Structures are given as C-alpha cells and as structure tokens.
Amino acid sequence: MSDPAIASRIDGFAAAVSHLQLPVVDSGAFVVDGLKPATVVCPKSLSQLQECLSEAHNQRLYVTTIGGGAHLHLGNVPDAFDVGVCTPGLDRIIDHEPADMTVTVEAGVRFADLQSALGEHGQFLPLDPPGDDRATVGGILAANVSGPLRHRYGTARDWLLGTRVVHADGTTSKSGGRVVKNVSGYDLHKLYVGSLGTLAVIAEVTFKLAPLPKVDRTVGVACPSPAAAQSIISAAHERGLAVVAAELLSPPAANAVCDRGAWTALLRVAGGAAAAARTMDEIGDYAALAEGELTDEPAAWERWRGAFGPAPLSLRASVAPSHAAALAETLDRRFAGDAGRITATSTAGLVRMNLSPADDVRASAIIDHAREIATQRGGFVVVDAAPLAVKKQIDVFGPPRSDIEIMRRLKQQFDPERRLSPGRFMGRI
Amino acid sequence: MAEEPTPSYVAGEIPHGAVTAALIGELQAAVGKRYVLSTPDELLSYEYDATIDRARPQAVVLPETAEQVAAAVRAARRFDVPVVPRGAGTGISGGALAAVGGVVVALTRMRRIIEVDAENRIAVVEPGVVNLDLSKAVAKHGLYYAPDPSSQRACTIGGNVAENAGGPHTLAVGSTTNHVLGLELVLADGEIVWVGGRTRDLPGYDLAGGFVGSEGTLGIATKIAVRLMRLPESTRTLLAIFNRLDDASNAVSAIIAAGIVPSALEMMDKMIIHAVEQALHCGYPLDAEAVLLIEVEGLEESTAEQAGDIDRICCESGAREVRLAVEQADRDLLWAGRKSSLSALGRYFPNFYVLDGVVPRTRLVEVLRASNAVAEKYGLAVANVFHAGDGNLHPNLLFDERVPGTTAKVLQAGAEIMRLCVDAGGSITGEHGVGLEKRDFMAWLFDDADMAAMARLKRAFGADERFNPCKAFPAHRGCGEVTAARIQRAAAQIGDENVYV
User: Is B210 close to A186, i.e. CB distance below 8 A?
Assistant: First the structure.
C-alpha cells in the first residue's frame, strides 16, 4: 500500500460501497500467496455483489473472489490483489423442488449445508472434493475440485445446468437454465467451472441432483502390491459392479486414511440392497485372489478428505487410466522420503500426491521430477499447492497447449482490463 | 433514414461476397474438383434438413481432411462468403441450412473411426461417423457410445456435437456434452487447433464444453475424442399402459421422486398409439390414452429391483397394465413402436412439425394439457412422443402443407407451445438446437446482456457472422426472409417480455 494513488482509489471504493453497510472483515484472513488485500467486502445479495464489482472496476482495482477460502492455494501467484470479494453472504437456497431433482442456490452457500438440506429429501450433489467444510458451492465450481465419487458421477460440469455471474464491470448475465436438458445458447457456465474466478464471479447456480443410494458401505482391501490393489478396482470397473468410488492408496496414505500399512483399494459400494450384496460378494472374491485383507472402513472418506487437503506440496498428475497404478507406484518409490502420500482415482487416470519436502530446493526438484515421470507416460502434472518461493518460479499448470490463444482472447473478451485475479490462471492469464 | 444499430449480441456483419467462378476454382484446388458441387441439380439435396425451412447454398464442398476443411474455409473467407458446416442433414432446427447462401462444408466423407482405446474407453472419430456405427464398431469390446438421438442410424457425431444432441437415454447418462472430451477444430480463420483432450483434468478453460452445442457457429470439428461406456450386464424394459394421460404424467414424477433414475422414460399419447398400432400391430391397446416406455440398465440384481419398484409405482399411479421384457427380442418389440412412431404418423398426414421444448418434470401434466389445447385452438392434430423423464416434450403438429394457410397456423401454434414451456420455467430446446427456427424465441429466455456475454465466446473463437450466419441467436439485419421470418412474426404476436429470470 505504499502507492498513494492506489490508497486513494481504495478509499474511493470504500466510500462508494459504505452505504451498503457491509460487515467489517479482517483482510488478514484473505491472504493469497502472500498478497493481503487492502480491503475485503462481503455482499449479501446479487445487487450488492454487482455494486461491489462495479465500484472496484470504477476505481481500477484488482479483485479476487473468495468463497469459504478453501481453495486459495490453487493457481499461480496473482499479479495484484486490492479488493477481496467474499461470497458467503450469498447464502440462500433459492429453489429446491425434490420431484424435479434440481436445486438453485446462491454461490456462497456452504457445500456441506447444501448437502444436508438435500439429504433431508434423499438427494445429493455427487461431489466430494478434499478439504474442510469451509468450501462454498461457488468456490467448488470455480476451482473445479472433485473427489473419489467422480469414479461413478463425473465432475462438477456434468451436474451443472446453469449459472448467473457478475462480470468484472458489475453487469450480470446468465447461461443455461433450471431444467435438466437444455441446449439454448452457448454453455458459458462450463467455461466458468475451473476458471478460478478469472472470467466472472459466479453468483447463482442450478444443479441437477442424484438420489442417495439405499445402501452405502465402504471397504478397504490392503494388498501385497499396488498391482494387486489395482486388480480389484479394475475388476469392479470391468464388471460394472455397484461401486461409486474406488481409490488406490499408497501405504502412507492408507495409514492416514484407514490405519493400514499397505497398498489399499478403498471401495465405496452403493446402490440397491441386492446389487450391493452381490458387489460385496464379488469384491470379496477379488480380494482373496489378490491376497488382500478386507475390512469395513466406515470413517475412511472423512479421513480421506482430511488427508488430501492442501499440503506443503500437493500435486495432481493425470495420465491414461491404464497408466495410473504404475504412475502411483513410481511416484511412491521416488518420493517416499518426502512424506509423500498418494491417492489415485485410477479409473479417471488421476493421481494425487501430498508431500512435505525438507526445503524449497527439494520441492522444486520434486515438481520437475514428477512432471518428467508423468510426461514420459503421456500425462501432465498440476501443482495444487507449493511453498510461495517455489510457486513464484513456475507455472503451476505446466506448459500451455495450442489452445492458449483462444483462452487469452476469452479473458480479453470477459475481463479486458484484467481486473479479476490477474496472472492466477493458466499461462498467467 | 438512420440504420438500426446492430445489437451487442451480434458478432460482426453478414458477409456480402459472392460465390464466383474464381472462388469455385479455389475450392476445387482445396478439396479436388469432384468434391465441389455447384450446379442446381447437385445443390438440390443440400437445400433441406428435417425442418420446414429451405435455403440454397451456391456451392457445397466435401473435404476429406482437416487441412482441406481449413483450405475451403480460408477460400470462402477471402471472398467474404458465408461458411455453413453440415453433417447428415438430419437436424430439426435448420442449423445446417445456408440461411443467406454461401458455401456448405459437408463432412460426410470424413467418416473414419481413427482410434478405439478400449482399455481407457475412449474413441477418436471424424465428424462424419454415423452415431450408431460407432456403437457397432466398439460393441466387440463390450462398449458403446451413449448419446442416442432417434436419428442415430443416419445422424453424424459431428452434427451431434454441433447440436449437443440427446436421445432417450440422456436421462441417465447425459447429452453429447457429457461424452465429448476433446476436439480438433478448424476455426473461422482456417487455423487448426485442439481444445480439450482425453481427460477432464486438463487445466485451462473448458473450451470443449463451450464448443459442444454451439450449432456450427464457432468452428468445424474435424476430430472428436469421446468417452465410451460399458454395455450394461442387464436391461429390463417396461411398457405401462394408462387410461388417462394425467395418470401417466404423474407416474413419471412418482418414479423420479422415488429416487429411481431409469436409463430411459418415454411417453407416447393416444395419437401415436393409434398410428403405431395400425402400422406395426405391436399390441398397443387402442383405447389407452398414454403408454410409458421405461428402461433400466445395470447389474441383474439392480434392474430386477428397479423394474419391480417401477411396476408398483405405475400401478399405484393408475396403470391398467404393465408389461415387462427382459430378453433382447422382447425388448426390441416394446421399443419398435417408439422407434417407428414418427414414420407411422405419415399414414395420417403428409407433414409433421416436431417441436422440442423442456419443462420441469413437475409441470409435465399442465403443460402437456395446455399444449394440446393450443393445437386444438388452431384445428391441428397433435401427437406426443417424448422424453418424459427429462421433461423434454416433442409435440408433433400434423398437417398438410398443400392446404393454404396451414403452415402459418402450424408455426403460430408451435410458437405458442414454446412460450408455454418458457412460462413454466423451461426451455425452447432440449436437444434439437435453436438454429434458424427458434432464434427469435431466444429473447424469452435470455436478455441482451446474456446474449452479449455469449457473443464474447464467439469472438474468442475468432468467429463472426461469416460462420454459419443467422443461427442460434435472434435474427438481425441481413438475415433474409426464410420461413423463420414468419416465426419471428409469430413470436412478436405473443409478446417478447423476458419472463425467465
């Protein structure tokens, strides 16, 4: 804040929004990669959100949107951060018609609160990203985070029917709708998913929902080798069994999640009673073939979410599903000394690794090495969390692809002055 | 007189160039002389799709590679002539018609299945691959391509991508967008670029998600990477027969409310039942008001349990009879009526106009009733065969275009039925696209700010009105007087206040 010109623009912003009488928030809780905003505002309605964005735009200030603050570690180090706009004040569930199996909510609704509200009607939004309960619906979309349930249910974009957003200049627009099938207009809402708030601020969203399964049971099978554990997951996948989540855990991960010291297949069996019973029988057979030890693990997913929140160094590698188990094994062998723990949604080709490297030099070396290993297998690595000094040296998303120019033009179209989280996205967009 | 300002949702002007002998020469150089059509006889079959509209291009090119597509696009651009991508021409919204003339790029020669990676359940195909042919080709691996539009024996994957096509099984597995991972595109300036890839985890904006359903206005897909699904172990099909249409509609809601998501949940009304029964003799009772065709897929244990629950719910909702088929041949028999329903209607009337509206599932009963009342008001016969589980209505207005004034009445009734869907909180299209036909209804769903945001995506792709002009967004100056103009007038008569918030 040494620049007096910026200070006066911040004052101008504060004066312009003072009539909204927004709650005073400690901006120290909203630090992104060492950048502390000069001010944080928490609007409580769409129109207040619009006014905050519009006034920040008028004062030529840089804005980062924050939901519950659960995903601030994601993305590149922003170029600038003047105003934090927090959304948890936008906390209304606007419309839930259980018989339509759709819900429309404001983006600041806490994801956990939404799930409990839906659960009362036997429904849920089948997303289970890692991390704690701070996460908001809008934050989960902007970060495009997913969890083990993607084995069966896909990712956020598959459940999103429409959004209303607020643009950098405070204007608003919508895309999609509230019905489960709709091809009118461009699906702009798909572009906002995973955009880390760099195109627009998500204000309202409509999802389609899934019914909660009648039976929901989790078992772990501790195995003598990663291949043995993967064989159970592959067999369940190939047979089309009633499995909604299937994670391959390295021994340190299994230790953290279900107190096992071996490569473990963690399987969530869900569906009707008869289908679940047969699935359990078959998993038992495959476990025996793999010489694994099968145990009930009712608390495993809660612990998984805790174990795979942001670490000092969190990496997400992506390869063809057929390479996932081998990649997990290689990464485990190379980085066992760095307190590395690995969980792979192998059927999606996704391998997550959390580490605690000794120092920044080691962290950089791990990133380089992991990228080399993944690239050899035709994949790539995204750095979800890293020490600040390391993040400053790299593009956490890796090298851009040939479509980066369309992405740059998209940013230029939506946020020509680069007011929304500048530099945070891929290619430092 | 001052010219009207161009609305902010319009990206660029309609091109004014002409298809000249010089352009034909360049197109021939791009794709080979044999594969450029330009005589009236050759062009005739490219004036049509499956809608009422007709529009004639001045040339059609049939490229075989992405480079040829790019060369043709660049040539048309140099001459400031519109480019209109086209698949099999089975579309039902006018998307493949050359609204203001120009060059049609027909992708039917690009029909190679480039790669099938069975282990990772991915296929890479060219846009001209026929939808059903892909499923046939991967069946030996125990896999299939899930989106199944009713025209799947003819329609192409490229056309499905353009329209974000659905089908009966969308209910459980989603539309085309849920199954496309990445695409190779030829952009409006002739650049060839991949968006997306083989995994949903690629960082960056979801450009593939933005492209699918863009109705040929952003570029031309020349390769498409799709997800394949495992063929289910077991499938059970039920036919539930109802004496009252309302009971059948209520059964649809009751099934969904019970936490069952069937793989398909289709409804046919009395008119369809009669047409199908007389054509096929598949055993539909002629005094029934509605039948539901319901399918569940998955593990044997799961389909047995769900079929039992559905049977019970249908009976509780007033079904007079529920038939169950497990074996393939028996299931095919139950589906035969559904699949041939549109052709069976041809026995009654020479023309039909298929509408494609969506309403929340809980509003099915009232909207269906109101939609039938609209048809009655105009003295038109209407037959309903549709994806009830999704709330995706397909009223078919039956008529004879040789009777003067009838087509106008059909379009007016169609517009009113679309408006009913919007007023119920739904949409003007669930799977057919907006195209030429419904662009003037867009303002019922989206205001100028919404469409201006959409135009930004078009600019980001470098596309303008040279690329499939006059499609998907409200018509503006220069879009000519095709049938859509009549629809525009019909829309105006209903009123254009924005009711959808």
Answer: yes
